[in-house]
Write a structure and sequence with these properties.
Blueprint (H helix, E strand, L loop, with lengths): L2 H26 L10 H17 L6 H14 L6 E3 L1 H12 L1 E4 L2 E6 L2 E7 L4 H4 L7 E5 L2 E2 L5 H8 L6 E8 L4 E8 L1 E4 L3 E7 L2 E6 L6 H15 L5 E5 L8 H11 L5 E6 L7 E4 L2 H4 L20 E5 L6 H11 L4 E4 L7 E7 L5 E10 L15 E2 L33 H22 L3 H4 L10 H11 L22 H9 L13 E2 L10 E2 L1
Parallel strand pairs: 11-12, 12-15, 15-16, 16-19
Antiparallel strand pairs: 1-18, 2-9, 3-4, 3-21, 4-5, 5-6, 5-7, 7-8, 10-11, 13-14, 13-18, 17-18, 17-20
Helix pairs in contact: 1-2, 8-10
Protein name: S41 family peptidase
Family: Belongs to the peptidase S41A family.
GO molecular function: endopeptidase activity; serine-type peptidase activity
Length: about 525
């Protein structure tokens, strides 16, 4: 290495060490036992940086090199930690508020392409007929393969009333076709309600956003104005990917006695060890009157069924777990996603941030949600004919680099082989289903008369027989491999712990019950 390059390398090392040293000082208040900086590895990083700057075939952008290195370091931790550059940071905040300009689809990356997780109800993408599982191969004239997820997001976002053409590959129909969609401001409605039958109400939460609690209070109050003597209520959390922690605590508190434990968290630093209770101080984002005080008192005692499935993740698992542990509701459906980790957003400057996993979630009884999820009290199929595609559903335990769950066992080759066989059979059924007219293939809308799980929930509330699944079973973990997390949960669930100082409103759950980092567009 030339003397000039050595000097450049040491300058980079010094600058990097200085920056990291500053970050360490800022973190010292949270953890006085930080390990010393790995100076040798930082020297190697600086040397590589210097070599790329001097020897690469063409000039490189220094800023991009550094940000890409940061992004790679963070993404190697787990599927939900993420470096938020200026654009992504802005989009993250817009998504949490429930308002942004785009197409209205939640996406993730799969084999170099962009897969649609779900179109947001009533969005331009939804009205254009895009379906979960559709693959985006081109955005206008740009091939998706080779683009990062954030680059694809930038191309799909834009100004209101402008158009973008997506080239879609639909696997089950084995065809590729273009769809032109007009961008619009997406105002996601995270709460839907209706009286499905006289005396029986249905409340659906599709996400946990900043407006969710206010919308919930207003719409549930409207239900009780129409019928003050509601005999039963179904809380529908199916395919709810999560959102804000305080919104989950508030929705749980709406049904639970005051001050009972809703969820506990535990992590490496002191502020990650916390107990969140059904108390205004734990779910109110700003000083003021308690929004839940406007709810009818009958909501605390109304017979309650909660519907969940494999797409219920994070915040929705917190609600289901709290209501289940306190025996406030009957949980019905299929085992949830299993995202039992806390992501905290820490600003790195005025317009960038770090979304980093800081803790695990535990139900009031101290049970870890991570990888296992919430197991329903009553397993119910997706349709009257069963759950033909259950083996194709992806859960947290299937994601690479996922945090281990309490007692999680290594994969059993025999079980994996059996599961692969089930998947092959499910794919054949999917191919046969694709030959039907499109109108027959679209799943029934949630809340409709053809919504099989909802009809079973109503039967439970009425004391009638429920058609329990004969095929769905719990995906168990070995009981003899404890990772110590449950014991830690027992310690913090028995007494209150300090709330995360200054981070409560930024403590957000990743809305990503799929591979990679899914985002709303």
């Amino acid at each position: 290495m030339s003397q000039k390059l050595k000097i450049a390398g040491w300058l980079c090392a010094g600058a990097l060490a200085g920056a990291l040293g500053t970050a360490s000082l800022q973190s010292a208040a949270r953890n006085s036992n930080l390990a010393p900086l790995p100076l040798h590895e930082l020297e190697q990083f600086a040397a590589v940086f210097g070599m790329i700057k001097s020897d690469y075939v063409e000039p490189v952008d220094e800023k991009k090199l550094i940000t890409d290195a940061i992004a790679g370091m963070v993404s190697s931790l787990d599927p939900h930690s993420q470096y938020l550059d200026k654009k992504t940071y802005q989009e993250f905040r817009e998504g949490s508020s429930g308002r942004f300009v785009g197409l209205g689809i939640e996406i993730t990356q799969e084999d170099g392409l962009i897969r649609i997780v779900s179109p947001i109800e009533d969005s331009p993408a939804y009205r254009a007929g895009l379906l979960p599982g559709d693959l985006i191969t081109k955005i206008d004239d740009t091939a998706v393969r080779g683009l990062s997820l954030s680059d694809a997001v930038k191309r799909m976002r834009g100004e209101p009333n402008t158009k973008v053409t997506l080239t879609i590959f639909r696997k089950d129909e084995n065809r590729t076709f273009p769809v032109t969609i007009t961008r619009a401001e997406i105002r996601t409605q995270s709460v839907k309600t209706k009286m499905v039958e006289p005396g029986y109400a249905w409340v659906r939460l599709s996400q946990f956003q900043e407006r969710t609690v206010e919308d919930f209070v207003r719409k549930v109050s409207d239900l009780y104005e129409k019928d003050p003597h509601i005999k039963g209520l179904v809380l529908d959390l199916r395919n709810d990917p999560g959102g804000l922690l305080d919104a989950a605590v508030a929705i749980s508190a709406a049904f639970l006695p005051k001050d009972v434990t809703v969820v506990t968290t535990n992590g490496q630093i002191a502020e990650s060890k916390a107990t969140f209770r059904a108390s205004p101080s734990d779910y109110m984002r700003r000083p003021g009157s308690d929004p839940l005080a406007r709810l009818p008192a009958a909501l605390k005692k109304v017979p309650l069924v909660v519907l969940v499935n494999e797409g219920s993740a994070s915040a929705s698992e917190i609600v289901a777990g709290a209501l289940q542990d306190h025996k406030r509701a009957t949980i019905m459906g299929s085992q949830t996603f299993g995202k039992g980790s806390v992501q905290t957003v820490r600003p790195l400057g005025p317009d960038t941030g770090l979304k980093i996993t800081t803790a695990r979630y535990y139900t009031p009884k101290g049970t870890s949600i991570q990888a296992r999820g919430i197991v329903p009290d009553i397993m119910v199929d997706d349709t009257a004919e069963g759950s033909p595609y259950a083996s194709l559903h992806v859960r947290e335990a299937d994601l690479e680099k996922h945090l281990s769950g309490a007692g999680e066992a290594k994969k059993d080759p025999a079980l994996e082989k059996e599961l692969e066989k089930e998947r092959e059979e499910a794919i054949k059924r999917l191919e046969a289903e694709s030959k039907k007219p499109a109108s027959q293939r679209r799943p029934p809308d949630y809340g409709s008369e053809k919504d099989f799980p909802l009809q079973q929930a109503l039967a439970k509330l009425k004391g009638q027989p429920v058609k329990v699944s004969k095929t769905l079973t719990e995906r168990k973990v070995a009981a003899d491999r404890q990772d110590g997390a449950d014991k830690a949960a027992e310690r913090i669930s028995s007494k209150p712990a300090p709330k995360p100082a200054g981070d409560k409103t930024e403590q957000r759950q990743d809305k990503t019950p799929q591979k990679d980092k899914s985002q709303d567009k």
